Amino acid sequence: MEIEHKNQNNNNIEDLKDLFEIDYVYENDPIKRTINITNLEDKQSLLEKLKMKIISMSNCELKKNSNRIVFNDGDIQSQIMIIGEGPGQKEDEIGKPFVGDAGVLLNKMLEAINIDRQKVYITNVVNYRPPNNRKPEPSEINRYSVFLREHINIIKPKILILMGSTAMEALFGQTLKISKERGKWKELIVNQKTYQTILTFHPAYLLRQPDQKKYSWIDLKMIRKRVDELKIGI
Ligand code: URA
After folding, report:
1. How far is CA 42 from CA 29, 52, 70, 92, in A?
2. How, if at all, do strands 185-190 and 121-124 pair?
3. Cβ of 203 below 6 Å from ligand 1
4. Rounded to the nearest whole angstrom, what is the distance from the C-alpha of residue 70 to the centroid of ligand 1?
């Protein structure tokens, strides 16, 4: 993280920032009154470190039984972060999230609200394919949720979209029901920052239960509305 500027009291912000874990600083110059200090290079290197941390995990059944890590896809500067469950067969072959059938549907869902997939940031709760595409165990979800929180803290999106019950459980605990919680904006706090978060059905579920798409459409329209309200250029 690089901050070259002093604040209006001539304090060296570098000395202050660690105290408050701030992610922007006050500037005297009104044109650039705030600067986001997680710049592209910082993000790239933090993401690389996080990926290496996951790659060097020991005693992980998922890692042992899969071909490769599936870490992320999309724009690391995006204001929208989508979190799925975990890689399937195609993702495990290619090394990118949401490239199989569920990914094709995800792309269509985003297109329907005029969002280009390349312009969002995508990851999963678990980064290795669960054997036979089983749902990750609660202990696996807990273990990976530490990395997931770190991931969110690096990307710092304005909007978080959690797709399916695994993403919901990883960040809001295991007692909620996706059918009750979907379609509502919730606040998620990660490292003292609050994220506007929406839970919605997973595209793989929609492929199995197409009659549920009507609810998904409601959620998608809510997302589009919030994107416009927050003036997220996408
Ligand atoms: N399902 C997910 O949750 N993630 C993927 O990457 C693919 C399918």
Report:
1. 24, 15, 21, 27
2. unpaired
3. no
4. 10
Q: 143-191, pLDDT tens digit by residue?
A: 999 999 999 999 999 999 999 999 999 999 999 999 999 999 999 999 9
User: Distance between CA 82 and CA 233 in Å, rounded?
Assistant: 16
Token pair listed for 137: 């165990």
Does ligand 1 lie within 6 Å of residue 74's CB atom?
no
User: Quick one: DSSP state of residue 156?
Assistant: -
Task: Decide whether any atom of ligand 1 lies within 6 Å of the 102 Cβ.
Answer: yes
* Cα-to-chain-centroid distance, residue 160: 6
Q: What is the pLDDT of residues 48-100, one digit of tens each?
A: 999 999 999 999 999 999 999 999 999 999 999 999 999 999 999 999 999 99
Q: Which of 70, 73, 83, 85 to mutate to test the pocket of ligand 1 (most atoms within 8 A of CB)?
A: 85
What is the distance, to the nearest Å, from the Cα of residue 58 to the centroid of all Cα atoms in its chain? 24
CA angle 70, 181, 221 (to 5 degrees): 80
Provide the terminal-to-terminal Cα distance of the chain, rounded to the nearest Å.
26
Tell me what the pLDDT averaged over the chain comes to. 89
The whole model's pTM is what?
0.85
| Rounded Cα distance, 98 and 88, in Å | 8
Domains annotated for the chain, with CATH where assigned, are 36-229 (3.40.470.10)
Interhelix angle 40-55/138-155, rounded to 10 degrees, is 160
